[in-house]
Amino acid sequence: xxxxxxxxxxxxxxxxxxxxxxxxxxxPLEVAYDYPAIRQSLSRSNVESRPTTMWRYHELLPEVLxxxxxxxxxxxxxxxxxRLGQAIGMTNxxxxxxxxxxxxxxxxxxxxxxxxxxxIDFGFDLVGCASTGNLANAVxxxxxxxxxxxxxxxxxxxxxxxxxxxxxxxxxxxxVRGTYDDVNRLCTELTYREKIGIVNVNLRPFYSEGSKTVGxxxxxxxxxxxxxxxxxxxxxxxxxxKIGKAxxxxxxxxxxxxxxxxxxxxxxxxCAPISSMVKTGAEELTPVVPDTLVKSLSIGAPADGRRAAExxxxxxxxxxxxxxxxxxxxxxxxxxxxGIFTETAGGVTVGVTRKLxxxxxxxxxxxxxxxxxxxxxxxPNVVAHKAANLPTIEAKYSAYKALGQPLEEKGKxxxxxx
Amino acid sequence: xxVRFEFLGPLKAIVAGQEAVELEAxxxxxxxxxxxxxxxxxxxxxxxxxxxxxxxxxIYVNEEDIRLKENLQTTLAPGDxxxxxxAIAGG
Lengths: 418, 91
Prior knowledge:
The complex is a heterodimer. Chain A is an alpha/beta fold. Chain A has a domain at 78-105 and 210-383: 3-Layer(aba) Sandwich (Rossmann fold), CATH 3.40.50.1100. Helix content of chain A is 37%, strand content 14%. Chain A has helices at 35-41, 44-48, 82-88, 108-121, 134-146, 160-166, 180-193, 204-207, 212-221, 238-252, 273-280, 305-315, 324-338, 344-358, 397-402, 406-410; strands at residues 4-7, 13-14, 29-32, 78-80, 93-97, 126-130, 149-155, 172-176, 197-198, 229-233, 262-268, 319-322, 368-372. Chain B has a single domain, classed as Roll (Ubiquitin-like (UB roll)), CATH 3.10.20.
């Protein structure tokens, strides 16, 4: 299949290679596909007959010379979120739950699956990443699975819980003094000085294509229909842009009918460069120094920030940000109503959804999907206060009875019917 | 003592494939103006028409992003290392 890298600015073509920058104008490179050919060969029944992994859409992903990977990444649950909907006042709400993605419990498993397949194609024995935590685990896990050496660079203020699993993989974890953006700069330099495939630097054009599979799955799981509204957390700004691209591609290859989809971006107020850009109408992104407990979204100079803002504006959506307190409250709300325990980025998504509803930006009755991108077991510290002062009783029925009914303690405001 | 400008990866093409260029300048803007005299088209490839830094380019003075300092007006002192790097990474 004819695929190549195309510059998003000057549109010049380049062969597949481990490079993220156009050699002509230094614009960002992106994988280009032959959509008319894909439209001829790909059908819904084709896709449906394949294994339930993100690679069931392989024609719309970078071609892998070694063959389409069989790792069961993706195809995460799409949940009809009735109880959360009732709690916040939405009637047609769904959750795309990447908190249970394989193998490392975040949406980053998708992008890494593509990046490492291409790393092997390009002959890299050593791979790595700059990470806010989730990517560290995804690279560590899949590099171990594929027998690749790996090195993971993280800011030194990352939640220790996130790293505990990463250090168990066959990988070298290095803490860097500074912010994610400092780590990122170092990683960019590494790609030009060492033989290393950094998934979100020189493998980035391939890596970021993996994010599209969130959008592909969303549409297929809704019965080959696009949603009306999607709320997406934003760190580097790539996921929301690629979900927009995914919907456009599904239309181009005739797998779904065209339909306007409003995309809404969610950030933490302590690191909201993209949300600020959308809200102020600014043309350029102003970097910030992150100051939030939402480490997984702490990218102060997001590479796809401007593209994310453009995607949101073009779609007719909006962006918003929430405080750390609102984030933690939203993590608890999602757990209480849907039994889904998400990390801080998920709290931001749910918190921002409430805020957008209150502001009248979201349609309460439209088919809406919230992207939950990571698992709460990675950031349990932010809800540790919930475990303080738990009742402790003697092993006697009278002691249990004396506590009263469980729901009296929690309140009944989130309880609805099935 | 002069300022050292490093261009990484494909950006080396701007300065005829060199890893680094030494020069004297008081601010990043002055340095770019000076470099533009020797390397034709340098300003055009690093800056927008308005003169602001191109959004796909990051410049660091001693490893600090100039957008978090005084942008192109960030002052330079002898011995400073200025790194010019692609902004398309991460996330």
